Structure to design on (303 residues):
């Protein structure tokens, strides 16, 4: 293990998998509506754990970490492709760039000017919190699939094999749910979709487009349920500065260095997710058109 406190990560992962299994294959007396409502945060937590595991926790052996967290219970994105894209996202000078940041939701201004008005309106709605949590997962999945197709056509066979294994694994998952599960597969897919939508509450506000790279990552000073669900990744500027810092060490580390981090990130902060909801629930956080000069790269990303 990385240190003697990594049992916390293993405990959270164990609880997450146990609750997921009971909701998908047990607790038959629960109606599907309640099962879906409980599955949503469970699947979101698994996605947060995937983020923690790809950054080298809980074991030093990354292959073991990958094996433990790879089950595709979130359905929409293969873990190994998420891992690769996310590690590229950690090249800080590329953050928010519509070409070189795989997790950017911005479009090059030249591209923005060429797309039809209905799509501009759709993407602008996606830059509100209401849009990001409802249509955001569909737009992200479509955009990611398009960029992955371009990679495959450009001659990256590893991408093809990862997706083939993912499709087989998801097919097996839905067969198991249909054969042995305690809820309908369509209900499970709905939970997976909404789980990704809940995860996007976090990613929606994580970055802003600004000239100084250090000013692009947010701090949300909350310690509520969403902070736990996101494994403290709301202290996002801390995570980008110290990506291998374990989730359970981040809050104390931030408190000890609060003024330094707020100076480093230019004061890009929110008091809580309630403030995010209040300010950006139905009001676009930023324009979709990238306000700076975008680098030109042949691949898009998760956005």
């Amino acid at each position: 293990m990385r240190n003697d406190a990594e049992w916390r990560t293993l405990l959270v992962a164990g609880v997450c998998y146990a609750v997921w299994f009971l909701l998908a294959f047990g607790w038959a007396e629960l109606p599907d509506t309640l099962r879906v409502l409980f599955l949503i945060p469970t699947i979101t937590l698994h996605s947060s754990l995937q983020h923690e595991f790809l950054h080298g926790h809980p074991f030093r052996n990354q292959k073991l970490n990958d094996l433990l967290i790879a089950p595709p219970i979130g359905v929409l994105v293969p873990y190994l492709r998420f891992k690769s894209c996310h590690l590229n996202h950690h090249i800080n000078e590329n953050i928010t760039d519509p070409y070189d940041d795989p997790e950017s939701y911005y479009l090059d201004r030249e591209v923005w000017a060429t797309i039809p008005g209905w799509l501009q309106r759709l993407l602008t709605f996606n830059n509100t919190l209401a849009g990001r949590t409802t249509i955001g997962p569909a737009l992200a999945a479509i955009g990611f699939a398009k960029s992955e197709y371009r990679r495959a056509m450009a001659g990256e066979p590893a991408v093809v094999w990862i997706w083939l294994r993912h499709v087989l694994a998801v097919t097996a998952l839905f067969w198991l749910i249909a054969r042995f599960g305690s809820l309908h597969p369509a209900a499970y897919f709905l939970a997976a979709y909404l789980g990704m939508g809940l995860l996007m509450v976090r990613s929606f506000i994580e970055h802003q487009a600004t000239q100084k790279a250090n000013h692009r990552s947010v701090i949300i000073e909350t310690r509520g349920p969403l902070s736990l669900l996101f494994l403290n990744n709301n202290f996002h500027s801390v995570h980008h500065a110290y990506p291998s810092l374990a989730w359970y060490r981040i809050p104390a580390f931030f408190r000890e260095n609060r003024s330094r981090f707020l100076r480093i990130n230019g004061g890009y902060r929110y008091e809580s997710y309630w403030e995010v909801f209040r300010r950006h629930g139905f009001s676009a956080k930023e324009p979709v058109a990238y306000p700076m000069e975008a680098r030109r790269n042949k691949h898009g990303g998760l956005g």
About this structure: Residues 152 and 160 are 6 Å apart (CA to CA). The two ends are 34 Å apart (CA to CA).
